[in-house]
Design a protein that fits this description.
- By secondary structure, the chain is mostly beta strands.
- The chain has one helix and eight strands.
- The mean pLDDT is 86.
Length: 127
């Protein structure tokens, strides 16, 4: 699985985060603005803004077992993208910076290869 850092952020004065996200086709300064209109527990914690346009949302999440770490699940969208971009914003321990990380979803052929390997290992173990 390929993981790429596509953005670096710092805390903004008004709360949230500000910085840039960069890919081969995008280079944009964006802000994670606190969502003051959280109507329910599943509402996003932040609105992702490009200028005055909302381009996505970010939800609170936790990862890990005993040493669980907080992060934000991020969805970014644009009419020119074939599909929304799913990423994760990971603040550092001190809260002075954060990285936006994108993970390439496995290709269907990778899933098929992993499935075949698991089946072969199961056959070898039983017979």
């Amino acid at each position: 699985m390929i993981k790429l850092v596509i953005g670096n952020f710092k805390p903004s004065r008004g709360g949230g985060w500000e910085g840039e996200f960069r890919t081969l086709v995008a280079n944009a300064k964006v802000r994670f603005v606190p969502n003051d209109d959280r109507a329910g527990p599943n509402a996003p914690a932040f609105r992702v803004m490009l200028g005055s346009s909302r381009i996505g949302d970010a939800w609170e999440a936790r990862w890990g077992g005993d040493r669980a770490r907080s992060f934000f699940r991020v969805s970014l969208d644009d009419p020119f993208l074939p599909a929304p971009v799913s990423a994760a914003l990971f603040p550092d321990e001190e809260g002075v910076s954060a990285q936006l990380v994108w993970t390439r979803p496995p290709k269907e052929e990778d899933n098929d290869q992993a499935r075949r390997k698991t089946q072969e290992e199961a056959r070898a173990a039983t017979g």
